[in-house]
Amino acid sequence: MPPRSEFSQHYAPVAAALFAWARLRVMGVLRRRLDPEDVVQETLVRAYDRFEVFDPKVGSFRGWMFGIANNVLRELLTERARKPAPAVGAGDILDLIPADATSISRRAARSEEMKRVISVLEGLDEADQRFFAYRILEELELAEVARTLGITEAAAEKRWQRLQPRLADLLEPFRGRLGR
């Protein structure tokens, strides 16, 4: 179990993907009720709070982080569906998170490159956005993406082959994952 002092070094490579994932998952009408940055902030708070239970022998930090993010999103959507709520309150724990971790999130959210990536992704149809989120941002294997989307592995492979050329030049933050 890693000490909290190592949180930022684990979080830095995941921050841009988490921000892009939140923007893709909270779109359209949902944005009137929930800000994607609130999802990222609450995910950051919960991950930092529970970081000492993260076990790299059990799974990747990215997978662990996206598991938290999915739970946060589900809970916030349920909460907001019941009643209008103010932005997510992170409480006192936000003050405990290292400044470099919160600045990593801010840089990812505000970078021109990320704005360009989000613009391109928002131009995709919903099925391609979901595929991208699972395959690139969450780094799920192709077979798992197919199961999650309810399509065959062959269909997933074809969609992946079709998407790669369209996105390869635009997604520099994820360059290492595009060939997988």
Please outline what is shown here.
This protein has 180 residues and is an all-alpha fold.
Describe the structure in your own words.
With 180 residues, the chain is mainly α. It has two domains: 1-110, no CATH class; 112-180, Winged helix-like DNA-binding domain superfamily/Winged helix DNA-binding domain (Arc Repressor Mutant, subunit A). The protein is 66% helix and 0% strand. The protein is globular, with a radius of gyration of 16 Å. The model is unreliable at 85-93 (pLDDT under 50).
Can you give keywords for this protein?
single chain; 180 residues; mainly alpha; Arc Repressor Mutant, subunit A; 2 domains; 9 helices
Q: Detail the poorly predicted runs.
A: 85-93
By secondary-structure content and strand pairing, the structural class works out as mainly alpha
Number of domains: 2
* Number of DSSP helical runs: 9
Overall outline: globular
Query: Gap between N and C termini, in Å?
Result: 29 Å
What's the SSE pattern?
A: HHHHHHHHH
Radius of gyration: 16 Å
Number of strands: 0
Strand content: under 5%
Average pLDDT over all residues: 81
Q: How much helix is in the residues?
A: 55-70%
Outline the biggest β-sheet.
none
How is the topology of this model organized?
Layout: H1 7-25, H2 36-50, H3 61-82, H4 93-96, H5 99-110, H6 112-122, H7 126-137, H8 142-149, H9 153-167
